[in-house]
Write a structure and sequence with these properties.
The structure holds 2 protein chains of 2 kinds.
Chain A lengths: L2 H17 L1 H25 L4 H20 L3 H29 L23 H34 L5 H40 L4 H6 L1 H45 L1
Helix pairs in contact in A: 1-2, 2-3, 3-4, 3-5, 4-5, 4-8, 5-6, 5-8, 6-8
Chain B lengths: L1 H29 L9 E16 L5 E13 L8 E9 L13 E10 L2 E9 L2 H46 L5 H21 L3 H28 L16 H34 L5 H29 L2 H9 L4 H37 L7
Antiparallel strand pairs in B: 1-2, 1-4, 2-3, 4-5
Classes of the chains: A mainly alpha, B alpha+beta.
Chain lengths: ~260, ~375
């Protein structure tokens, strides 16, 4: 058996042992997410427009991740809606910044890997790089939205009569707790991934100015910053969607009361 | 009430200050050409030239266009001199750049005869976009999260400095001890971050123990699996930007990658358990363990996803290029995505193992009565 299969099997067994049915569902969500990501690459390679493909795949990934790993209906619906809103805002930010920063495609550091490959493939790499940046933040958006929504629905459970105004403040308070650790997940996740690149920079003695304008470096740092922006935005947006949902629920409840 | 009003005013003042400083910084990077030793050209006019059609062996059709850039040099000994640079860009733009009016780019000046300069375009200047995004993140953090935002930023900045020092240390040992350097760095990272986020107390110690334990366990499991499967299907040669022995480097990357997520998770679980015990001190250790497992099993899936997308989405452009160059799906996966998937799986194992570990350590070593 290959290493990937064995590691995957161990992960599956551990997830079922620790999480039971929820663990199994989370594992399935992971598999499906991989399938969706691969599908996106294949579709773009078949000349489907990268941005619409990314948006559709992005919404599907968010839905899968959120609905398959948590049970509470109200908080998952809120988390999903909020993360979809964040995704749209993020696209509006990423598209102009990627155009401005000119970080599409590959840099001089990639030339060894590109040997023997034709790079003139007729697909706009600005859009491909934009799609990459959007996809790499999806996990972080889903996780942050779920954490905020879960925290808020717990507060609602304990204090069912809390005013929507107070709930807004609670959302920010919950956000303050998670932001520090979430940033670290992003920081270590990305820096772990780029360790080799940073070692390259010091080994080849790039100057500070060269690093700051290097295509690959800027592209990678922009990705971290996009992910951080998305996590920060998730806090107020999820809270806002939650207050709307609660207000709607209360209105309906009040109507039913008056009918009786 | 007056105190609240005053605090509002201070926050508002701080926000205006951040906005001003940020705007100034972005403006300054737009005009910082003097700081660079390489000549920088400002494009004032662009003339579009001929477009030619290209077709490669795999019937990929692309269009290459020549452009003439008119402008002047912003810095160095040729400062203020006017020049013309020709540049070629393609529709796909994977390795080339299309410049527009107002673009700034680095150039290489070739000769200096009869007062006429010739030069070739080297690369675009990108620092302004970088500074703008950095400012956006810091500004949003301070606006929405205020003090906690500042602390979060501080911990990331401190970790960044440590990371840089470790890389320099790694360079000075020729990469021979990469795993040791980054392994011990992980311990320092975790201790520093948790101290900043939680403070120095028992809760922090339990969280630290879980973080280190979970990460170490995942690496041990990975090494065992590597040993028994003889690393079948691991394509170290597919790793990018490798300048030293790839295997320890790969493990160091994985170690760092999973550390943050395991830390995130154990902080969540253990702080919830401490809060729970504070509210209901009568809970037994077994009950605490059970709730810990329940909290953990809902957050582990999304966390593994975070790392999966960070590790694997990054391979999108290269994987697509492989597909366009007539490679099969399987080969494209092996050469581009397999190492990222292995990294996600190892980190995932760490994340899952941290759940029972956190619950056990919290239930066992939490004080009988948690002080409020």
């Amino acid at each position: 058996m290959s290493t990937i299969n064995v590691l995957g099997l161990i992960l599956l067994i551990l997830m079922v042992l620790v999480g039971g049915k929820a663990g199994l569902q989370s594992f399935l969500a992971l598999l499906l997410n991989f399938g969706l990501l691969f599908l996106a690459i294949v579709l773009v390679a078949f000349h489907f427009p990268p941005l619409p493909v990314t948006l559709v795949v992005g919404v599907l990934v968010l839905a899968l991740t959120i609905f398959m790993s948590s049970g509470d209906d109200m908080s998952s619906t809120v988390a999903f809606l909020a993360s979809a809103v964040v995704l749209v805002i993020l696209v509006l930010l990423i598209v102009p910044v990627e155009h401005w920063a000119l970080v599409q495609g590959f840099g001089p550091e990639d030339s060894e890997d590109l040997e023997g490959l034709s790079v003139l493939v007729g697909i706009n790499f600005v859009q491909v790089t934009t799609a990459t940046a959007i996809l790499s933040t999806l996990g972080a958006i889903a996780e942050a939205a779920m954490a905020i929504a879960a925290g808020l629905s717990e507060i609602l459970e304990q204090h069912p009569k809390v005013s929507t105004r107070a709930l807004l403040g609670d959302g920010i308070a919950v956000g303050k707790q998670i932001i520090g650790t979430t940033f670290n997940t992003l920081f270590f996740g990305f820096f772990g991934g780029f360790l080799a690149l940073f070692i390259w920079f010091t080994g080849v003695h790039y100057s500070f100015g060269e690093i700051l304008n290097d295509k690959i470096f800027v592209s990678e740092i922009l990705m971290i910053l996009f992910a951080m922006v998305s996590v920060i935005l998730t806090v107020p947006i999820t809270t806002w969607v939650m207050t709307r949902a609660v207000a709607g629920q209360r209105k309906r409840a009040a109507k039913q009361m008056s009918k009786k | 009430m007056q105190g609240l009003l005053k605090r509002r005013k201070v926050t508002l003042g701080l926000w205006v200050l951040v906005l001003l400083i940020g705007g100034l910084l972005v403006w300054a990077t737009q005009h910082n050409a003097g700081l660079y030793s390489d000549p920088i050209m400002q494009v004032t006019r662009v003339q579009k030239g001929q477009t030619t059609k290209d077709e490669d062996d795999f019937h990929n059709v692309d269009y290459q266009t020549k452009q003439k850039l008119y402008g002047h040099i912003l810095n160095g000994k040729y400062r203020g001199q006017k020049l013309t640079v020709t540049n070629t860009y393609s529709l796909s733009g994977a390795m080339d750049q299309r410049y527009r009016k107002g673009s700034q780019l680095f150039i290489v000046v070739h000769q200096h005869q009869h007062g006429q300069l010739t030069a070739t375009a080297k690369d675009a200047k990108r620092d302004t976009a970088l500074v703008f995004m950095l400012w956006l993140v810091v500004g949003l953090l301070l606006l929405i999260m205020q003090f906690s935002g500042f602390m979060a930023f501080l911990s990331v900045a401190l970790n960044g400095v440590l990371f840089l020092m470790a890389i320099i240390l790694n360079g000075s040992t020729q990469g021979a001890r990469v795993l040791w350097i980054f392994g011990s760095l992980a311990v320092v990272f975790a201790a520093l971050t948790l101290w900043l986020v939680i403070g120095a107390n028992r809760q922090m110690l339990i969280t630290l123990a879980t973080t280190l334990g979970g990460t170490a366990l995942s690496i041990i499991v990975a090494l065992l699996v590597f040993h028994f499967t003889h690393e079948k299907g691991m394509y170290y040669e597919s790793m990018q930007y490798v300048t030293q022995l790839p295997r320890p480097l790969f493990l160091a990357e994985t170690l760092l990658g999973s550390l943050g997520a395991v830390m995130d998770e154990s902080t969540d679980i253990i702080s919830s358990l401490f809060a729970l015990k504070r509210e209901r001190p009568e809970l037994s250790a077994t009950q605490v363990f059970k709730s810990g497992r329940q909290i953990g099993s809902t957050i582990m899936g999304p966390l593994i996803n975070v790392l999966f997308f960070i590790f694997v989405a990054d391979t999108f452009p290269m994987a697509m290029l492989y597909l366009k160059n007539g490679n099969s799906w399987g080969y494209t996966f092996s050469m581009n995505m397999s190492m990222g998937v292995v990294q996600s799986l190892i980190s995932g194992i760490g994340i899952v193992l941290a759940v029972p570990l956190a619950s056990y350590l919290a239930s066992r070593f939490m004080e009988k009565k948690v002080r409020a």
